[in-house]
Amino acid sequence: MKSYKELEAYKKGYDLVKAVYEITKNFPKDEMYGLISQMKRCAISIPSNIAEGYMRGSKEYIQFLKVSLGSCAELETQLSLSQDLGFCSAVDFIRVNDLNTQIIKLLRTYINKITNRFTLTATR
After folding, report:
1. Contacts of 12 (CB under 8 A, 6+ apart)
2. Contacts of range 108-112, beta carbons closer than 8 Å, 24 or more positions apart
3. Contact status, residue 57 vs residue 4, Cβ threshold 8 Å
4. Fewer CB atoms inside 10 A, N or C side of the chain?
5. Does domain 4-123 have CATH number 1.10.10.10?
6. How far is CA 76 from CA 80, 105, 119, 120, in A?
7. Are the beta carbons of 46 and 72 closer than 8 angstroms?
8. What is the C-alpha separation between 107 and 76, in angstroms, rounded?
């Protein structure tokens, strides 16, 4: 793979950022520096850490993928909270949460593959 931009998790993460920006437009204005800001930061962190880790390479890459995974977990919590508070519709919640879940699965797969590659290399 020539670029992190070819990674499916990066592409979906980038789409997730746009989706979070879209749904938070309808949140109450008093959440501008609360939930809106936090959700945007979490979403941006996902593809950003995939990109940075990819460029650094090796073992650091795994750490950056784990940071992205943690941001996905944070965002999952914030999405649930925003729906429970009535800030986003069920349709928006499902759409964005499903995308987040897809990214979580991809990140776990990447982490496992890279970890196994290091384990195999170390035992040779």
Report:
1. 99, 102, 103, 106
2. 108/69, 110/7, 110/9, 110/65, 111/62, 111/65, 111/66, 111/69
3. no
4. C
5. no
6. 6, 13, 31, 33
7. yes
8. 15
Q: What is the residue whose two structure tokens read 């592409």?
A: 11
Residue 66 neighbours by CB under 8 Å, 6+ apart: 111
Does this model's pTM top 0.85? yes
Pick from 22, 20, 23: nearest CA to 40: 20
Whose structure tokens read 């992190």? 4
Contacts 24+ apart (CB under 8 A), 101-105: 101/76, 102/12, 103/9, 103/12, 103/13, 103/16, 103/46, 103/68, 103/72, 104/69, 104/72, 104/73, 104/76
Q: How do residues 101-113 score in pLDDT, each as one tens digit?
A: 999 999 999 999 9
How do the domains of the chain map onto residue ranges?
A: 4-123
- Tokens (6 digits) for 51: 């990109």
- Over residues 24-72, the pLDDT tens digits come to 999 999 999 999 999 999 999 999 999 999 999 878 999 999 999 999 9
